[in-house]
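Reposting from the mailing list since nobody answered there.

I have sequence plus structure tokens for a pair of proteins and want to know whether others read the tokens the same way I do. The first protein:
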Amino acid sequence: MVQATPFLLVLFLALGAHGLSAKKCNLVGRWVNDLGSNMTVTSVNANGVFAGSYHTAVTATSNEIKVSPLQGSMQKAPNQKGQPTFGFTVNWKFSESITVFTGQCFVDDNGKEVLKTMWLLRSHVDDIKNDWKATR
């Protein structure tokens, strides 16, 4: 019977751990980045489509910064374990440019939700000869 005790303990721990659910990322809400820009996602539908607004704290234009709409999509695959990949587009209301973001929502070791993203900004240029300087 002594030899069965470690097995039962391991089995109990495995069954007990199965009942614990990992925290899942929820994109809905207000997000603030390191530079002070903030994004608000107002809803995510059953297909992963979401909408909201973005207020940037950083710009290369002298125009007054305005809150701009965003539209995006979140991956709904079951194998993502609650840390989904996503992408969204911001149509800037104060400049002739659009930015696309892509990233993933993570839950860190402390249970905090964190978005990690990359972006690509396309600005308007007047001539195809200047295409090379339109994307950052």
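The second protein, same order (residues first, tokens after):
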Amino acid sequence: TKDVIENIQRITGNNFTVERGWQEIEEIISTWEVHERWLHWSEFLQEEELQYSKRYHYRVCWSVPTRRKPIPRATASVYFVIEISKIKPATLPVDIFFTLEASRLIRRPEQCQFREKWLKDIIENKIILMKRL
């Protein structure tokens, strides 16, 4: 997976649009080894203006609908940030990071292999919490 992600042609700062950012995220997700039963949808959340960069925030929501339960009891979200530097040349590729729901660990797609277990753990923990409440 790591080699595949490194071969993805990253968009540059001067070619960036919110739509192109969404497409880039979908391309990264397509390299993840996630079983086909997992479905996801994604949305653009916000643009954040910082002193030295601009950040674009997206959310990808995952679930496993079934015939018995087409509306899943819980979902797992992965949050992506695309950062465009105001200092570096606009011809350089954008930086992309992601975090899992309820986690502070920031990951780069090209530096770690996504694990389906992360999604399962989030959903299982939510279901356990709902049962306790």
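Reply #1 (J.P.):
I read it the same way you do. The two ends are 39 Å apart (CA to CA).
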